[in-house]
Design a protein that fits this description.
eight-stranded parallel barrel, four-stranded antiparallel beta sheet, 18% strand, globular
Amino acid sequence: MLITLKKESRSLEKALAGKFRKVPHGEKIVYIIDGKIPKDLLVELDIESSKETSRSFKLASREYSEETTRVRIGDAEFGGPKIVICAGPCAVEGHQLLLDTARAIKDVGASVLRGGAFKPRTSPYSFQGLGEEGLKMLRSVSEEVGIPALTEVTAPEQVSLVSRYADALQIGARNMQNFELLKAVGRAGRPVVLKRGSSATIEEWLLAAEYLLLEGNWEVILCERGIRTFETATRNVLDVAGIALTKTMTHLPVIADPSHATGRRELIAAASRAAVAAGADGLLIEVHPKPEIAMSDGPQSLTIREFELLMKEVKEIAKAVGRCV
Ligand code: PEP
Ligand code: MN
């Protein structure tokens, strides 16, 4: 049971004898309670709302909020009528290259600049990202172009450093169940893009989001980025039905990352169209001015021209499902 009160209640806490969790939500306090509250206490309390959910993830559930939560990164609002497009290189590689990319994507309608400075790579021999130097480039380009910056954080001890430079933090697929990282990011006071682990069920993904919410961070955007199956022809498999299903299970906005889902540039437009048609609230797309020399994920990065064309297609699909870009 979820009970929202205007302020904390000592008498409720006493009656529950420690068997509750509480979380601030704006000005209010949400109590998560196992079981029922004594009837006499119920009348005494100034209850804003009381909700039941049988879900394991409570705060993230649709039962907690029927309305989709709107999450902002800078001026971009996820969960509203607009499909928000986040784009940029897989990794921050250099100032000029990032500047050119940011200007180009913003010109054609992207609202968030992505770029990793700490890269979680499968091989320890692969490019690991520029670290703080990359974060500085991201910040300066973000300010010069006037577009908010989203970047990955891979360890709890990086959270304060990354938060100094980024408008929003990304938790990568490989870290979806890094619980200490989730808790630290939950306390960072920044919006979060939480990728789905490549072998995670939707319930596990929403329970990972619950860790963030339990720390009082309600600015959570879920990102479907493809799951692993027996198929090896694509890098992962975009769970299109999973996007639609997740939106029925949670009030949090859900976006899709067709770049990591397909791993192949030529499939990104089709996967993007499908995701938007299925109800995704945004897209996260890798774009690189010269994918052939990209230091990571070149084969799945769109050129600037290809990204422009994709934006046109996405606009058409958005219109068809009553939304805009
Ligand atoms: C990325 O966004 O570049 C990335 C590493 O994504 P994922 O965690 O989904 O693999
Ligand atoms: Mn990548």
